[in-house]
Amino acid sequence: MLFAFLDYLLEVAGEINRMVCCEGLAGILMKNSANGEMDSFYAIRPECQAHVPRIRFKPRAGKTLSARRWHAAFSQDGHLDIEKVLRRIQRGWKKKHREVLRKIDQWNKSGVHPSIKGVVWEFLLGCFDPNSTFDERNQLRQQRRQQYGALKAECQKMAPAIGSGKFITTPIITKDGWPIQDPSTTDNSQDDNRATSTPAPFDSPKHDEEHVDDAVPDKKVIQWKLMLHQIGLDVVRSDQALVFYESEANQAKLWDVLSVYAWLDNDIGYCQGMNDICSPMIILIENEADAFWCFERAMRRLMFKLMCGTSSIGVQSQLSTLSEILNAVDPKLHQHLEDVDGGEYLFAFRMLMVLFRREFSFVDALYLWELMWAMEYNPNMFSSYEESGASADKSSTQDTNDKLLKKCGKFERKNVKTGYKDQHSSLAVFLVASVLSTKNKRFLKEAKGLDDVAKILGDITGNLDAKKACNEALKLHKKYLNKAKKS
Fold first, then answer.
1. Is the whole model's pTM more than 0.70, yes or no?
2. What residues contact 464, with CB distance under 8 A and at least 6 apart?
3. Which of 125, 273, 329, 446 sees the fewest Cβ atoms within 10 Å?
4. What is the tens place of the pLDDT at every residue in 312-348?
């Protein structure tokens, strides 16, 4: 133990030396002012300070993927060493140090520094090919910005409030498509002085037809317009504790992106929870078009089309997979949950729906996401999107040789190696299973019904560690694959 601890001290000393030589004072300040740095990137409104969950993630010099290390991962012409980036995001202490330093858990952090999260996420979500050059990515980015501009212009013709810096929170048409009197003359301001909407007059459905492609039925226009005020109401509720959303312009930007996406997505359009996924991207990515495409890729990756509403086949498949996993790795707990009428696992719906946004603080949720996306990364993702517009799960079905396998995340690599291709067994499902399994004793002792299950899950809100949760999920994943292989 003593020698292991001495090894640790030598490693820390070497890291500090590299920080001073390579990153200078900025690297040391990154370590010493982590709390202040989080406050500057994700400032909390003073009146909300006492009510937000405690932040566990803090940038750590030598651990967190910093801007310097990110830029160093690119070749001169722009090729990204994605293997190095994934390793940095996923990394933790070496095994020989974990036992010695298990109580110093706050050091076991990796993740991405807030200043570069947005651009890193674009790669993790498959917006860009790591093997592309700077010029190729710039050309693709410009094409996408033009495409988003055209989509937004199309939406503006049907709903002039889009792009106006305002957004709506009241219905603008009836279910039959008839326009509703413009409510802009009423006072829509909230008690907390956050503006919600100043709707502009909208064209009648007949007039809208002039601006919509003949191939698009009127019903689509009506359904889309009926969503706009609901999107606005959700925007008002999005991350209210953050100073960023005190600005009506920032709220309007979130509303614009969600509204344009709702028009683009012919299957679902919009459903509650999408705002929780999109909000961080609006904060992290300054250009609205870039934020839109990052969100669009996230929707594919999260298979949101399969997860909107408890009646959807996708949700049932996810929850069914969760049931199978827990039955395999913790049969006693699974049986107990079935005995208290929780066998359908509907209580886990919210965690899967918004990727644990309610279980973690804002900062920790972002850290969890990038850990998950890094662990699920497949180098075929970008090509599968561009060539076929298919969902992310298809990327793992393409040929992946040993060289490409090294560029996969930990979770995806294990799936590829074992040939496991259940599209519903995402890391998020194993994360839910790990959360349930770690509370095994409490569920078995206290849960006499679904209300008790909900209460126990409610008590963990804000008290989970993202890194530990991911590590436990990976252990369950390995255990589950081993059991599946034997059966």
1. yes
2. 356, 359, 360, 364, 435
3. 446
4. 556 677 888 899 999 999 999 999 999 998 878 888 8
